Each structure stands twice: as C-alpha cells, then as structure tokens.
Amino acid sequence: MDLAYLWFWIVGFLFVGYFVLDGFDFGVGMSLPFLGKDDVSRRQVVNTIGPVWDLNETWIIVAGACLFAAFPHWYATLFSGFYLALLMILLALILRGVSFEYRHQRDSPKWKRGFDRMIVIGSALPALLWGVAVANIVQGVPIDDAMEFTGSFLTLLNPYGLLGGVTMLLLFFTHGVYFVALKTDGQVAADARRLAGRAGLLTIIVGAAFLVWTVVMAFAQGRELAMMTAVLAAVAAVLLIASWISNARGREGWAFGFGAFTIVSAVLALWFALFPYVMPSATAPEFSLTIENASSTDYTLTIMSWAALIFLPLVLAYQGWTYWIFRKRITRARIEAASAAVH
Q1: For the chain, what are the domain ranges?
Q2: Per-residue confidence (pLDDT) for residue 339, from 0 to 100
Q3: Other CB atoms within 10 Å distance of the CB of residue 343
Q4: pLDDT (tens digit, 9 = 90+) per residue, 188-240?
C-alpha cells in the first residue's frame, strides 16, 4: 500500500480514538447541570474523568501533528479555512482544563459554580464545532485552484454541517452519561441511567437523520467507498440502539461499550465517505485535495511510519494501564469521608 494511503487511515484512527475518549469527557462535562444536585454529586461527576481527561485530550495533539507532517497541504487549507472554528475549540478546551484544575482551590459555592459553568461551555462548544467541522470536510467546502478555502465561518453553518454538529454533541452527551452511570454509585448513577435513556432516544432520531443524509450524499457524489459508508452507518445505528437497550436494562458497561463502538463506526463511515479525498472542493472537483496531492514525500512518510510502529503500541499500552489503575467507581461515601477529613 502507498504510504500516503496508509497515513490517511492512521490519521483516521487517531481521530476515532480522540472522539471516543475525549467524547465521553465532553459528555461528562455537559451532564453537570443535570446530575450535579449538590457539591458532592458534582465532585462525583467531575472525578470520573479527573485522572484521564488530559490524557484523552492528547490524542488530538498527536492527530494534528501527524496531519501536519503527513498531509501539509490538507493541514494548511484546513487550519486557515476553519481558523475561527478551531480557535473557538482551542479556547473552549483551555477554559475546560483550567476549570478542572481550579474549581476545588477555594471552598466557595460561588467559585465552584462559576468553574462548573465553564466546564459545561468548554465541553459543549467543542463537541458541537467538531461535528460541524467534520461534516463540512466530508461534504466539501469552497476551495480554489491554489488549494485555499474561499468561504467564511458562516459557510460552515449550513444545514448538513449544523446537523453534524448537533449529532456529535448528542452522541458525546449520551456517551458521557453512560460513563457517569458506569463510574459512580447511588443517586448520581441512577439519575445518569434515566438521563441516558431520554438523551439516547433523541440521539437515535437525530443520528439516524445525519447518517442517512451522509449515505445519500456519498452515493450522489459518486464517492468510491459509498457502499462501505452505508454499511458502517447501518452498524453505527444498530450499536446506538443496542447501547440504549443495555442502559434500559441496567447494564452500564455494555451501554458504554456499545456507545463507544457507535462512535467508532460513525466516524469511520465519515472517513470512508471522504476517501480518496481529504478535502473535497465544492467549487470544482479538480480543485479538491486528495490523498495523493496533499501528502508529504515518501521519505517523510517512511520516517513517520517507523516512529509510529515503535511508539504507538507504547502509548496504547500506557493508556490502557492508566484506565486499569483508575477502574474503580467514584463513590459518594469516599468523597464525603475525604471532605470530613479536610475539615
């Protein structure tokens, strides 16, 4: 296989990992107003991702770095054209990270409520904008013969892009609430299961509309792997329904697992719909960025391949070990005991 095509799939793998892992982080953050009835319950919710949120976030840094090195033309067009959207995502992630670190620094309800609101905003905004961005990349945006984006931020806010944003926000929200139900006990876990049931139904409806639109668009535009897009979209729909049923039966682990594979299948469906382009041009097909005309030299890709072969298994092993170490539930009794010891 040509190395450029290999790296197209490696970059796709990194984005899949990011959306699965940071996706439930976003969902947990967005669930705070619904599940945090008091300070202890809010601490339960936040502590479910306390040891892992920053590790999950590094996936997008690695994905961006690989995109820059493997597909410099794609990186340049994407980051210049989607500058405002990506800047808003970056600022929201900074806001969320600061809030995680500072909310417990003062024993003041007003102080904590302020940072909790920033966690919600810093989780919801990236989830929405990532969906808008990915949907527009797959659909195609105005690009001229110099590989430059000729639209604006408002160009991205088209019906398909907005539906993609809402779908990703709801998918991440439901995914995060499954994680809260899996990682907590007592009232918070019970509330999370009920919330996931309601959110899951809405996600199924909106997600089905987006996946159908994606499949129809892929066939209409004659994408090479449109049939694989249809298959993966169907798999994603089945898995999403399976996660909702598992949650209704009180099987939090199965619900979270099916939810994770729903995201994997949905993102892969979009990736297959994109192939062999990396940024289709809505201006003229000949102006599109493809895997071949947007990639780096074979020498660069060869060095990157050896580095990935050595370091990627180590990173995956370390992340797996981290999740194993922090696998226990966050119980209300433990948080109350810790608060009593401090005071």
Answers
A1: 3-342
A2: 65
A3: 6
A4: 999 999 999 999 999 999 999 999 999 999 999 999 999 999 999 999 999 99
